[in-house]
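Throughout our pipeline, every protein is held as a single compact record rather than as scattered files. The record that follows is passed on verbatim for readers who wish to inspect the format:
___
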Amino acid sequence: MVSRKDATFGQALFVFVFLAVSLLVTIKVFGGSPHIPLLMTAVVAGSIGLVNKMPWDDIQEGITEAFKNASPAIVIMTIIGAVIGTWIAGGIVPALIYYGLKVISPDYFLVSSCLICSVVSLSTGSSWSTVGTIGLALMGVGAGLEMNPAMTAGAVISGAYFGDKLSPLSDTTNLAPAMAGSKLFEHIKHMLYTTIPSYFVALALFLFLDMSKSGSASVENVAALSTVLSTNFNISPLLLLVPVLTMAMIGFRVPAIPGLVAVALLGAVSALLFQGGDVSSVIKAAHYGFSIDTGSGMADKLLNRGGIHSMMWTISLIIIALCFAGIVEKTGMILVVAKKILKMATTSGSLVCATIVTTMFTNFASGVQYVALIVPGRLFRSEYSERGLHPKNLSRALEDSGTLVAPLVPYGTDGAFLMGVLGVSPFAYIPFCFFNMCSPIISILLGFAGWTIEPLEQEAEEKAIGPFAQEFAKTKDGMAN
């Protein structure tokens, strides 16, 4: 019987180069979507696994495990589609846009959008919920103010992921310290050293864009959009209670899935009570999205969206990405590349840099934020302990590059979701995700400078757990030679 072997570095490199090239050619040359190149690369990766004598059952187990880890995210994405449909049908999103046009100054729109999403996300712990509700409304306000939609999306994403990164209610904020072996609140406190400077840099850049008159809204256009909204919807301050109740539910730690179902129902009730809708129209809005012909192209573009059906393109992309992620993880392709990166980490600063590079690589290799936190967390945990470094250094590096880089992966779960909700291509909004790009850079700089890199203080060294760390421990001596 021939024993199986993991993928070699050359094989892994071939797969990831094949992915990058096929994505670039398909999207830029042929104008296609990421689905087919991702599927082709998954086939190539799986074929390499079979050539290496890996049983198909093992490869399929990797796919199944990837689906298991990401299944809650898929369910949440599906429900958010229904939330968007019922919130528009209920007049909630139109009300947020209507009042936003009156309150938010175009002179400080991008800064205001970032701050608003930061507060909401910090309160709820969910970047996706923030983007799918308040973020969607801000996209409408930005359109009314004639702002560049890519800039608006960048501000919304920066704010949403700021709160997601720091909120104790966030799943990633809890997952990162769990993988690294640190405690939740010491992890959050330690992240402030990289998060706060990155956030102020982002706000300064958004302020610069605001001052450069990126939006030149005319009073007539703003008034016209406001009139269209007030004509076609019953705009009432009472509708603003729904977002407040949403934040309250999550603040009381109502689980995400039942909480979002309740939020969708609130939108349905608003449609029945405030907009004179019937049950049939509400069901259609939740399933197929809201549809209206206002006579205004701008308003129709903002309002004709949502519904579970609208998420199917995104979900199909995520399903294919999960197949690819499960295969490259199970065949050892991510691990072998991570080992190569770790060999170059000879100092504490280079170890932090290696962690961030590996986590970013895992993000782009798998397209799944959770994989990008779990795999490097398992792999590097023992290394930080053996070098006498506190595990909160590891957990901070994981979030700086795992949580925040996820929206920058066009074919990943976060990138696909954001494109589906905001209606802006990741290739357009990425240059304006200032917070997401600054955080890993500042984290690397602090690592090499040795600032805020804290040692273990009379703490027993923890042994790394999980198959990736165990595999690494077996080969560590060989790597050093």
